[in-house]
Amino acid sequence: MSRSFYKIVGCMAVCFLIIGVGDRDVIAIEKARYDVLEKSEDFELRRYASQIVAETLVDGDFDEVGNEGFRRLSTYIKGENRKKQSISMAGPVSQSEESEKIAMTAPVNQQKAGQRWRITFMMPSEYSLETLPEPMDDRIVLKQVPGQLMASLRYSGTWSRKRYEEKMARLMSILLEHGLKPVEEPIFARYNPPFMPWFLRRNEVLIPVEPVEK
C-alpha cells in the first residue's frame, strides 16, 4: 500500500487516541452543577448550584491573562498551599503544615472585573471554606458563589478574543428573544487543557441573567 495510506491511517489513530484520552479526562473531572431550564441548539438557560471557587485577579489583555491566572491557580491546587492541621486538646500541643493536592475541575472561568480580569477555578464539592487549605499566594482568594441563573452558548475552536466576542454578541441577541437581561459581566468558560486540539475543545460564553420584568 502507498505511504499516503499509512499517513492517513496514522493520523486517524492519533485523533482517536486524543479523543479517547480527552473523554476519560472529562469523565474524571468534576464539573459545575446545574439544571437546564431551557435548551435550543447551542443555547441553554441553566440554574447553577452554589459553589466555592479559588479566584485571582490579573492585569493584562484578554488573550494573555488566562495563562497567568491558570498558572497561579493550578500551582495552588497542585500543592502550593497550607493545610491547617487539627490540634488535639491533649498535650503536647503541636501544629504542622503540609501541602495538599486538590483535584482539577471544569470549567476555568475568565470574567472582566473593572480594569482587570477575574480567573476562577471551582473547588471540588467535597470541600467547604473551612476545610480547603489556605493558598500561599496572597493573590488567590477562596469564596462562596451563590446559586444563580445563567445563559450559556457553547462552541468549539480557538480561545481567541475575536471568536469569544462573536459568540458573546450572538448570546446577547438570544437573551432579548428569551426576555432575559444580563446582571453581571459575561464569562469565558474553558473546559479543556491547552494541549487539547482546538477542534475538540468545549468553550462557552456564560452570562448571569434574570427575567425582564413585564
Describe this structure in words.
By secondary structure, the chain is an alpha+beta fold. 28% of the residues lie in helices and 36% in strands. The protein is built from three helices and 15 strands. Strands 2, 3, 4, 8, 9, 11, 12, 13, 14 and 15 form a ten-stranded antiparallel β-sheet that branches. A hairpin with a 2-residue loop joins strand 8 and strand 9 (116-122). The longest helix has 26 residues, at 3-28. The N and C termini lie far apart (69 Å). 24% of the residues are buried. The model is unreliable at 1-27 and 85-89 (pLDDT under 50).
Give the topology.
Elements: H1 3-28, E1 30-31, E2 34-40, E3 43-48, E4 51-58, H2 62-77, E5 81-84, E6 97-98, E7 105-106, E8 108-113, E9 116-122, E10 134-135, E11 140-145, E12 148-155, H3 161-177, E13 180-182, E14 187-190, E15 203-211
Parallel strand pairs: 1-7
Antiparallel strand pairs: 2-3, 3-12, 4-9, 4-11, 5-6, 5-10, 8-9, 8-14, 12-15, 13-15, 14-15
Oligomeric organization of the protein chains? single chain
What's the average pLDDT? 84
Biggest pleated-sheet summary: 10 strands, antiparallel
Rough shape? globular
Structural class: alpha+beta
Unreliable parts: 1-27, 85-89
Rg over CA atoms, rounded to whole Å, is 20 Å
N- to C-terminal distance: 69 Å
Relative helix content: 25-40%
Put simply, the count of helices is 3
The counted number of beta strands is: 15
SSE ordering: HEEEEHEEEEEEEEHEEE
Percent of sequence in beta strands: 35-45%
Short note summarizing the structure:
The protein contains three helices and 15 strands. It is of the alpha+beta class.
